[in-house]
Design a protein that fits this description.
227 residues, mainly alpha, globular
Length: 227
């Protein structure tokens, strides 16, 4: 009796290979219904808070933050402007991948940055290793579920996630593997430009892709039960 139960549990939490079809998914990228909008904003808020938890852990920045930090140092601009430049550059990669922007793309650019800054402002930096490690894993969980949540709305992806989804659609490679490749790309560039890395950086790279894939599975299971 225990083995079938364990198998069902593992299947329930198995990483998804694709984006699930949810009951709240918008019919197109620019049709924003109240429920979909609320879920979208909730996902972006979770992503921002998750990112700020990683930053304030003092164990090293997430890969894309490392890249933005490196650019800000070299160009003498703020971290916010550096993120904007990175996002614009990543959006250019969308064209050969034929990824279409939508309301979610715009919302990601604006609301994620705002919630990230809010989190950095209200969450104090941590210097206790155990608590810092807890913050990192909480941040990974928040980013993973938040990313899956806003992508499942079908309103278009943010710059970096659109690149991820585009590569998944074109190559058939697993989501977490594509995510890991993208994170390595950002990390290498940021490190060469002088961005800060650490244990937290490595943990985010290793686990955030899996967190997104598992969250896609959970959202798909939840939505199917509601239909």
């Amino acid at each position: 009796m225990g083995t079938p139960s364990l198998a069902r549990t593992l299947k329930f939490f198995a990483p998804s290979r694709s984006v699930p079809k949810t009951s709240w998914r918008a019919p197109n990228y620019w049709t924003v219904r109240p429920k979909t909008f609320l879920i979208l904003i909730s996902g972006l808020f979770m992503m921002g808070i998750g990112g700020s938890l990683s930053v304030q852990s003092n164990l090293g920045n997430p890969p894309w933050t490392v890249l933005a930090q490196g650019i800000s140092k070299q160009a003498g601009i703020t971290l916010g402007w550096a993120f904007f430049i990175v996002s614009c550059c990543v959006l250019l990669i969308w064209f050969p991948l034929k990824v279409t922007p939508g309301f979610g793309t715009v919302a990601n650019t604006l609301f994620f940055a705002a919630s990230l800054q809010l989190g950095v402002t209200i969450i104090p930096p941590q210097h206790n290793f155990k608590l810092s490690l807890l913050m990192i894993f909480c941040g990974i969980s928040f980013v993973g579920f938040g990313t899956a949540l806003y992508i499942s709305c079908g309103l278009g992806s943010g710059p970096r996630d659109g690149w991820m989804i585009g590569l998944v659609d074109r190559t058939g490679i697993r989501i977490w593997q594509i995510r890991l490749f993208n994170e390595c790309f950002a990390l290498a560039g940021g490190y060469l430009l002088g961005g800060k890395i650490g244990l937290g950086t490595v943990l985010v790279m290793l686990f955030v892709g899996q967190a997104i894939a598992i969250s896609f599975t959970l959202l798909g299971n939840f939505s199917n039960r509601k239909i």
